């Protein structure tokens, strides 16, 4: 075969011996002769440049390959089927700018070697077994199904976006088999119009404005992270699971913020992954993440949230593998290793007895009994324990022995508060059929009256103190201000009328904890004056206790008291509190900040932290407080978990 001629001007044309017929003089070509004529230094420099060019070409090839891989994945997502008949949504309020294209900020590109969060928080978990990988693949398929069809499915089932409200209609839908995808609620409630944004009153609009301001700061500076640090325009991580975003999902739905909800939903679908090597607190992650996902599922009908909730619930289950069945405080959701805090083998009583609403509901929705059985086993064991005082429980419980520790100390504040709340709310959730829960709750209320109630001077404010080995302390945490709302809720569901009387008296006290402070904001802990002394206020504050964390307990109880009595003074009190939040905690660049000194209106000393519960609870309860519609999340249809996430009552009365 004759040799293939080279095209004129090609590479072989550089050789003077080349001829069109393929023959030619042998010998070195022109480039080689020139190379031999170069000095050693010139040849060294040339080789160096050649190596640099080769490395650059290799890096460019890898970069282009990665880019096309990303483009391929985005293209595949773009070709997913969209719902044929998406739900009709009202015109939303104007949203803040896209977090990645905010005016004055350059687009945020991922950086390979820099993170502002603490190190090693989101390390990749060790590879699981084949079964875990199959479960992850099944979850991703379910997400695709939910993303493609959640709107049409919800609309077909009577679920639609109607702005700022949810009203349950009667009519149960039987649960499908566990293997079916998508899964729907055991008793799917159709959501109908309650109030469009146009019908929001002025006070509700003020709450929406506050939420949008807080959300704008989170979107700009902390998107996808746990909590906003509004002063430094950065973020802090606790679990690395987008805590604020998940906590705020149902608030956005209730407030009618369509665009913000859709954007958050997209993040949950594409970014929220639980297979990571990180310890989470069982209690906090249950009430905020599991509760938030379950509530978002019930209000929106979007199966994505239930899929995520089931995955997360499974990853919390190792916490219950203790000798006593009393769960550990922490569990690694990537490795499945659970453990108590580093300083003790105890868990707090509130932690282990305030996860039942969420785990019971997860079992009801999925048909998997293990969640309910594990949580209710804790309730049964705590019920049978010795060491109580007329229904009051100590603060700590040992995970090895299953017994109370630190006996003789009783409080309704931190480490014990929501134990009492969940006794009543489980009874309500289950259709008022579990008599043991009711008996424990009624006994505890009697114990509070007998051992912890006192009156202050000079205004005779009724407050709940603490008991330490028989010695009474006039100390009351702001956390205790959940109690007026809980007592009022019980009275609404048929418990003695004297519970409502106590609720109203305690509500006055919680309001005075705000009213008597110079900023109009309550301290974290108050001490009450027991002696009639001139020029001394009822509410006293120690230097270490004068901070405010944007907590929700007082406005939570104001919501219950107004909803169940119709007395508008409770709305007025809530309006004063919102005004104080806007005056002393609002950060101009976006977000709200906890403050260190509620007694100094000139220098409240912001602490550069916006807790997730400010969006998940405080603003939600304020919005509901200012509503005059008793069917907006009716208390005969929903029960709120301790993070203000509404869950359905199983057999509405």
UniProtKB/TrEMBL annotation:
It holds the Pfam family Glyco_hydro_47. Residues 1-26, 84-181 are annotated as: Disordered. SUPFAM superfamilies: Seven-hairpin glycosidases. It catalyses: N(4)-(alpha-D-Man-(1->2)-alpha-D-Man-(1->2)-alpha-D-Man-(1->3)-[alpha-D-Man-(1->3)-[alpha-D-Man-(1->2)-alpha-D-Man-(1->6)]-alpha-D-Man-(1->6)]-beta-D-Man-(1->4)-beta-D-GlcNAc-(1->4)-beta-D-GlcNAc)-L-asparaginyl-[protein] (N-glucan mannose isomer 8A1,2,3B1,3) + 3 H2O = N(4)-(alpha-D-Man-(1->3)-[alpha-D-Man-(1->3)-[alpha-D-Man-(1->6)]-alpha-D-Man-(1->6)]-beta-D-Man-(1->4)-beta-D-GlcNAc-(1->4)-beta-D-GlcNAc)-L-asparaginyl-[protein] (N-glucan mannose isomer 5A1,2) + 3 beta-D-mannose; N(4)-(alpha-D-Man-(1->2)-alpha-D-Man-(1->2)-alpha-D-Man-(1->3)-[alpha-D-Man-(1->2)-alpha-D-Man-(1->3)-[alpha-D-Man-(1->2)-alpha-D-Man-(1->6)]-alpha-D-Man-(1->6)]-beta-D-Man-(1->4)-beta-D-GlcNAc-(1->4)-beta-D-GlcNAc)-L-asparaginyl-[protein] (N-glucan mannose isomer 9A1,2,3B1,2,3) + 4 H2O = N(4)-(alpha-D-Man-(1->3)-[alpha-D-Man-(1->3)-[alpha-D-Man-(1->6)]-alpha-D-Man-(1->6)]-beta-D-Man-(1->4)-beta-D-GlcNAc-(1->4)-beta-D-GlcNAc)-L-asparaginyl-[protein] (N-glucan mannose isomer 5A1,2) + 4 beta-D-mannose. Residues 126-144 have a biased composition (Basic and acidic residues). The keyword Hydrolase applies. Pathway: Protein modification; protein glycosylation. It is an enzyme of class 3 (hydrolase). Its EC number is 3.2.1.-. InterPro entries: 6hp_glycosidase-like_sf, Glyco_hydro_47, Glycosyl_Hydrolase_47, Seven-hairpin_glycosidases. It comes from the Eukaryota. Keywords: Calcium, Disulfide bond, Glycosidase, Hydrolase, Metal-binding. The keyword Hydrolase applies. Its cofactor is Ca(2+). Belongs to the glycosyl hydrolase 47 family. PANTHER family: ENDOPLASMIC RETICULUM MANNOSYL-OLIGOSACCHARIDE 1,2-ALPHA-MANNOSIDASE, MANNOSYL-OLIGOSACCHARIDE ALPHA-1,2-MANNOSIDASE-RELATED. This is alpha-1,2-Mannosidase. It comes from Odocoileus virginianus. The gene is LOC110134183.
């Amino acid at each position: 075969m004759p040799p293939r001629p080279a095209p004129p001007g090609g590479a072989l044309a550089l050789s003077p011996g080349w001829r069109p017929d393929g023959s030619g003089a042998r010998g070195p070509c022109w480039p080689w002769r020139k190379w031999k004529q170069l000095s050693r230094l010139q040849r060294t420099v040339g080789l160096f440049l050649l190596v640099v060019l080769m490395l650059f070409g290799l890096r460019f090839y890898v970069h282009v390959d990665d880019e096309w891989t990303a483009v391929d994945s985005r293209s595949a997502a773009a070709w997913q089927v969209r719902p044929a008949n998406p739900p009709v949504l009202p015109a939303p309020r104007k949203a803040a700018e896209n977090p990645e294209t905010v005016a004055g900020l350059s687009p945020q590109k991922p950086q390979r070697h820099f993170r502002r969060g603490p190190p090693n928080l989101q390390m990749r978990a060790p590879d699981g077994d084949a079964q875990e990988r199959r479960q992850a693949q099944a979850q991703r398929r379910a997400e695709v199904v939910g993303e493609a069809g959640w709107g049409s499915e919800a609309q077909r089932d009577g679920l639609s976006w109607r702005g700022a409200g949810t009203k349950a209609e009667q009519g149960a839908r039987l649960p499908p088999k566990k293997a079916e995808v998508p899964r729907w609620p055991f008793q799917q409630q159709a959501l109908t119009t309650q109030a469009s944004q146009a019908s929001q009153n002025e006070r509700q609009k003020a709450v929406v404005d506050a939420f949008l301001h807080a959300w704008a700061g989170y979107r700009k500076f902390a998107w996808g992270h746990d909590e906003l640090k509004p002063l430094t325009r950065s973020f802090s991580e606790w679990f690395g699971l987008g805590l604020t975003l998940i906590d705020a999902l149902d608030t956005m739905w209730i407030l009618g913020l369509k665009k913000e909800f859709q954007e958050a939903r997209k993040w949950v679908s594409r970014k929220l992954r639980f297979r990571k090597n990180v310890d989470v607190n069982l209690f906090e992650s249950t009430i905020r993440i599991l509760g938030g996902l379950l509530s978002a599922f019930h209000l929106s009908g979007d199966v994505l949230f239930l899929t995520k909730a089931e995955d997360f619930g499974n990853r919390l289950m190792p916490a219950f593998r203790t000798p006593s069945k009393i769960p550990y405080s922490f569990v690694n959701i990537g490795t499945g290793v659970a453990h108590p805090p580093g300083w003790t083998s105890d868990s707090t009583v509130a932690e282990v007895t305030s996860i039942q609403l969420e785990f019971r509901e997860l079992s009801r929705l999925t048909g998997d009994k293990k969640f309910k059985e594990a949580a209710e086993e804790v309730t049964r064991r705590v019920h049978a324990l010795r060491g109580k005082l007329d229904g009051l429980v100590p603060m700590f419980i040992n995970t090895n022995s299953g017994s109370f520790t630190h006996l003789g100390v009783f409080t309704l504040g931190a480490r014990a508060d929501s134990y009492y709340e969940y006794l009543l709310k489980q009874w309500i959730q289950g259709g008022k059929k579990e008599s043991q829960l009711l008996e424990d709750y009624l006994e505890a209320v009697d114990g509070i009256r007998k051992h912890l109630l006192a009156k202050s001077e000079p205004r005779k404010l009724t407050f709940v103190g603490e008991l330490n080995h028989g010695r009474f302390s006039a100390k009351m945490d702001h956390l205790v201000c959940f109690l007026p709302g809980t007592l009022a809720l019980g009275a609404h569901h048929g418990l003695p009328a004297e519970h409502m009387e106590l609720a109203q008296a305690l509500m006055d006290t919680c309001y005075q904890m705000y009213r008597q402070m110079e900023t109009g904001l309550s301290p974290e802990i108050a001490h009450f004056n027991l002696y009639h002394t001139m020029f001394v206020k009822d509410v006293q504050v120690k230097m270490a206790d004068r901070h405010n964390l944007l907590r929700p307990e007082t406005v939570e109880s104001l919501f219950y008291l107004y909803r169940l009595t119709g007395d508008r003074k409770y709305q007025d009190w809530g309006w004063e509190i919102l005004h104080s939040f806007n005056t002393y905690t609002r950060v101009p660049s976006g977000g709200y900040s906890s403050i260190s000194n509620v007694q100094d209106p000139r220098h409240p000393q912001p602490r550069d932290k916006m807790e997730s519960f400010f969006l998940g609870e405080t603003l939600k309860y304020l919005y509901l407080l200012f509503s005059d519609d008793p069917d907006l999340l009716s208390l005969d249809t929903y029960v709120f978990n301790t993070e203000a996430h509404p869950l359905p009552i199983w057999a509405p009365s």
